[in-house]
Amino acid sequence: MGTYKITIAGHERELEFFPVSDKLDIAAFIMFGDVEITEASAKELLKICPEHDVVVTAEAKGIPLCYEMARQGCKNYVVARKGVKVYMRNPIEVNVKSITTENEQKLYLGEGDANFIKGKRVLIVDDVVSTGQSLEAIEELVTKAGGNIVGKAAVLAEGDARGRKDIIYLEELPLFFK
Ligand SMILES: O=P(O)(O)OC[C@H]1O[C@H](OP(=O)(O)OP(=O)(O)O)[C@H](O)[C@@H]1O
Ligand SMILES: Nc1ncnc2[nH]cnc12
């Protein structure tokens, strides 16, 4: 446990880091509740992302960034869900395992969202990328829906994701090994 200072899109923040296992702590980056970082990060990412028709993320922590990038840019966004709701007809699904979650989860898109994505230029976004498995799961889901993925973007890259050339990101965050 401890703190870590970082500047994200010109805004300095002190992040706490938390244990995810007996060997590893991760700095917790929570954009929920931080309007300044969300707005500034969306603006900076849009400058370096390819042209797109729709932004796609997975619930939950990617939603504010996804919304804000759509608001400043293409105006359309879709959120992949972690559960099926009664109003989601004929959902398509993929498996996902994130560093922050012990069990495997699923990501779903209802028929309406899947049809909306079909044939469109899709930019996939998330707040943090660590193992990359969440972005890959969204990628698989968007591909199933028939979307044309033009890029994958995150505000922060941590651990193995640092230095990845296939992901557009603003800042790097370390993992803290014990
Ligand atoms: O690259 P990865 O190892 O997949 O880690 C990144 C993912 O982990 C976090 O989500 P989390 O699983 O905590 O879900 P939440 O947004 O619903 O809290 C984060 O918002 C990314 O989606
Ligand atoms: N450092 C982090 N903070 C919040 N969510 C995360 N998901 C993966 N790494 C994370």
TrEMBL record:
Keywords: Glycosyltransferase, Transferase. Residues 38-167 form the Phosphoribosyltransferase domain. Coiled coil: none annotated. It is an enzyme of class 2 (transferase). GO terms for molecular function: adenine phosphoribosyltransferase activity. CDD domains: PRTases_typeI. Its EC number is 2.4.2.7. This is Adenine phosphoribosyltransferase.
